[in-house]
Amino acid sequence: MKLKIFNFVFLITIFISQSCTIRLDYTLYSQLINDLQERTSDKYTPELIRNYFNLNQQSLKQFDEYLYFSENERNRLKNLAKEMFTFGYDNYLKHAYPQDELDPIHCCGRGPDHLRPDNINVNDALGDYLLTLVDSLTSLIVFGNSTEFKRASKLVIENLSFDKNSTVQVFEATIRILGSLLSSHLIVTNEYQPFGDMKIENYENEFLNLAHDLAVRLLSAFNNENSNLPYPRVNLKYGIPLNSYNHTCTSGAGTLVLEFGLLSYLLNDPIYEKVARDVSEIIFKKRNPITGLLGNEFNIRNGEWQGFMSGLGAGIDSYLEYLLKSFVLFGHKKELNMFKEMKKSIKTYLRHGLVEQSV
Ligand SMILES: *[C@@H]1O[C@H](CO)[C@@H](O)[C@H](O)[C@H]1NC(C)=O
Ligand SMILES: *[C@@H]1O[C@H](CO)[C@@H](O)[C@H](O)[C@H]1NC(C)=O
Ligand SMILES: *[C@@H]1O[C@H](CO)[C@@H](O)[C@H](O)[C@H]1NC(C)=O
Ligand SMILES: *[C@@H]1O[C@H](CO)[C@@H](O)[C@H](O)[C@H]1NC(C)=O
């Protein structure tokens, strides 16, 4: 929860300086910001927060510690998070770079499982593309570690290539690699440098160019006339794999609008935003006609649902998240309305847990 809010604020922050030319609805935008700031500010006590969320009953007092952080506690946890990040990051560089990630059991580097292409657990995220290093760029920014950000940027710019025989999940490559490259580009080129001096000498849009290169490769996933829904995976070098899986989770297909939209904006090329937004709308239209809820998996050959479990967890969560974030970033009312409709269905039809039952 805390991390989600943090992401959200970060996303808004990185966009503040870029937002002038974007069609933002400032009233709703500032409402959202105020709301977040109020909720995280120090004057908010457990009582107030419980009232805010309508959680007044005695039985919920036991959860107080999760509702509120004092300034001291917040700082302690902040430093702890930073320490944990540095530990992971340093050991990645020491034991695993230039592979994608550190295998913590064997303490060595790990990349795609080329011998077992169907090992999607590993292969979906790992693409032989410096995953952890790229993924960490924005953490270094948030922690204000200018020296290390510049050093890591140099490694990425000199050595990152997407010309790889790796079949990755479009969703993972988008949120991790594309997202990180775009955020880094925004920060490096931001004239106000909100996180400290993250400017890179002689920067020539390398992060943006890398993002563009990756996105062109991912674009082949949208070549699916059967249902207009994207293939879940692409081979970075060869496009859609011959024996591609034909099912995808809702999140996997519908969580691309932020990165693809931002790329379109930065490149002044509408195609990325269009394919991502189209998919988001196709999924929305697939809601159950009675409840308005979404399933968690569909077949991309015929567009039919094949996972009928609805919920807020894995498989669906980030679809909903991106509807709202996309409104915050781009200011399209349409997505806000989609979000509100989903919220209504969820409130009405999903079984509620402890909180609502005891109200
Ligand atoms: C920046 O990151 C490097 C690598 O993790 C670390 O050694 C250094 O202490 C960090 N600097 C600051 C100011 O946190
Ligand atoms: C690409 O990788 C796959 C699986 O890892 C392998 O079977 C195939 O031979 C490779 N293709 C080329 C052209 O190297
Ligand atoms: C890029 O990779 C090559 C080969 O692995 C290495 O020699 C070089 O030092 C790397 N560049 C940077 C900036 O680390
Ligand atoms: C997906 O569907 C296509 C066309 O029906 C088929 O050729 C392919 O084998 C299917 N993929 C899998 C993994 O079943």
TrEMBL record:
GO BP: carbohydrate metabolic process; endoplasmic reticulum mannose trimming
GO molecular function per UniProt: calcium ion binding; mannosyl-oligosaccharide 1,2-alpha-mannosidase activity
Protein location: Endoplasmic reticulum
Keywords, sorted A to Z: Endoplasmic reticulum, Glycoprotein, Glycosidase, Hydrolase, Signal
The keyword Glycoprotein is assigned to this record: yes
Gene3D superfamilies (UniProt xref): 1.50.10.10
GO cellular component terms, A-Z: endoplasmic reticulum quality control compartment; membrane
InterPro entries tied to this protein: 6hp_glycosidase-like_sf (IPR012341), EDEM1/2/3 (IPR044674), Glyco_hydro_47 (IPR001382), Seven-hairpin_glycosidases (IPR036026)
Residues of the signal peptide: 1-19
Listed EC numbers: 3.2.1.-
Keyword Endoplasmic reticulum attributed: yes
Family membership: Belongs to the glycosyl hydrolase 47 family.
Protein name per the record: alpha-1,2-Mannosidase
Species this protein is from: Brachionus calyciflorus
